[in-house]
Design goal:
The protein is mainly alpha-helical. The protein contains 21 helices and no strands. It has three domains: 183 residues, MFS general substrate transporter like domains (Growth Hormone, Chain: A), CATH 1.20.1250.20; 57 residues; 203 residues, Up-down Bundle (Growth Hormone, Chain: A). It is globular and about 65 Å long.
Length: 469
């Protein structure tokens, strides 16, 4: 039997950990109504189970570049896994909602440490011309976990006591720790690095303010409330202050000069757009299947499973094509497929079959796989290797913000537009369908606008030719 190359063991090691984090978060979405009954809590209180994870993860990510360089990427990744396991055990042993929320904050902090570092560890193990395929295979976790998470969460909460929502993480976390200790390579450390406390306070406060405002903005009234507007404004001011402050430092928390590299900046824009495409589908499709066509949660889960698998296949294919041809032959095509088939979901009628919607969603997911991770890889390849952890952190933070924005935007659009159509005496089923169709058309158009911009990105060979000798 042929021995597995060590670099692929690195991918397998980080795959276990990040898959667990993403899976656990998506598992909890369909269980919130049940948890409301268990803890006798209202929707606002129970929503903190999701909101606190998002905020904790988003505010921890900016630290990962410094921590990875100062203490070693392998060590920080393993610490993140251990913290995640502690949060999972704490969640399973919780007796009230407050301790569940605290446990989710611990899990979010762990996720913030792990996600950017995982990408840096893979980049450290592979040469630039092989990273596309490696990141494509790793990215399967990012696509499959959100698709199967709700189904698994529904099964767990339906047949097992609720603490198993947290206990299911433990075997994966232990396996991830074992594989990471055995196969991850120790990276260089820089003990002379100084911690930028002021920058940390500014960026984490800014991100936390924005993510919290978006997390609570499930309705137009909430988003336009004085508190939400103040949080969004404060977050924007703090981030602007952070950008100005970091430009004056010799050892900034995040080196923002990498945004001057066109390929990296455009890759951020593409992945942010792709995130809106991903999460608009995750939010809108269950409404279409259940509210318009009256089908079950199980059929909703069936809609996402083949799409996730096809996305994983296309992600690996796109990564391989990226390594051979460069981003211009992959990312624009992926965006056209994603945007085009998202638009096609805007023409559903009351007689549209479930199977047609399934096929359209599978095809748009194939496009997502071809544009998301390949764009990320092209962007990371364009920056110096020692800045990959920071570049990954910024990519993840911006993606997190735009994912939240996408969900908030489409949930509010759906709510407001549906109410307008009701006021015109349009039947509920037809009004719901029209509101969802319009939302898909908006999402598809937004994605397609990014197609010409994506041609700015350069591959490894082009970057070598354009760099000064």
């Amino acid at each position: 039997m042929k021995k597995i190359d060590h670099k692929w063991l690195v991918v397998m090691s980080v795959l276990f950990g990040t898959f667990t984090v993403i899976l656990n978060n998506s598992m909890l979405n369909p269980t919130l109504p049940t948890l409301m009954d268990i803890f006798h809590a209202d929707a606002v209180a129970i929503s903190w189970i999701l909101t606190i994870f998002m905020v904790a993860m988003g505010t921890t990510m900016p630290l990962t570049g410094y921590l990875g360089d100062r203490f070693g990427k392998k060590k920080i990744y393993i610490i993140g896994l251990i913290i995640f396991m502690i949060g999972s055990i704490s969640g399973a042993l919780s007796s009230n909602l407050v301790t569940v929320i605290i446990s989710r904050a611990i899990q979010g902090t762990a996720g913030g440490l792990m996600m950017p570092i995982a990408m840096a560890l893979i980049f450290n193990a592979f040469p630039k011309n092989e990273r596309g395929l490696a990141v494509g295979i790793y990215g399967v976790a990012a696509m499959v976990a959100p698709a199967i998470g709700p189904t698994i969460g529904g099964i767990v909460i339906g047949y097992l006591p609720w603490p198993f929502l947290f206990l299911v993480n433990i075997p994966f976390a232990i396996t991830g720790i074992f594989l990471s200790i055995k196969f991850l390579s120790t990276t260089e450390t820089n003990r002379s690095l100084k911690f930028d406390l002021v920058g940390f306070i500014l960026i984490t406060s800014g991100i936390a303010s924005i993510l919290y405002a978006l997390g609570r903005g499930s309705t137009l009234e909430l988003l336009l409330s004085p508190m939400s507007i103040c949080l969004l404004a404060a977050g924007a001011v703090l981030i602007i202050a952070f950008v100005r402050y970091e430009g004056k430092l010799k050892q900034p928390l995040l080196d923002l000069s990498i945004f001057r590299i066109p390929t990296y900046s455009v890759s951020i824009a593409v992945t942010a757009t792709a995130s809106i495409g991903l999460f608009s589908g995750i939010f809108l499709l269950p409404l279409l299947i259940q509210e318009v066509y009256g089908l079950s949660e199980i059929q909703t889960g069936l809609l996402f499973l083949p799409a996730a698998l096809l996305s994983g296949v296309s992600m690996s294919f796109g990564g391989k094509l990226l390594d051979k041809k460069g981003p211009k032959y992959v990312v624009p095509i992926g965006l056209v497929i994603l945007g085009g088939f998202t638009l096609s979901l805007g023409f559903n009628t009351l007689s549209t079959s479930f199977w047609l919607i399934l096929v359209l969603n599978c095809l748009r997911s194939a496009g997502l796989g071809m544009c998301n991770m390949p764009a990320t890889t092209a962007g990371m390849n364009s920056i110096p290797d020692h800045q990959v952890a920071q570049g990954s952190a910024m990519n993840n933070v911006i993606r997190q913000i735009f994912s939240s924005f996408g969900i908030v935007f489409f949930s509010i659009y759906y709510e407001v537009r549906q109410a307008q159509l009701f006021s015109l005496d349009i039947a509920k089923q037809q009004a719901t369908l029209q509101a969802l169709n319009e939302a898909f058309l908006i999402a598809g158009t937004f994605i397609l606008v990014m197609v010409p911009v994506s041609f700015v990105m350069k591959g490894v060979d082009e970057l070598k030719k354009s760099s000064p000798q």
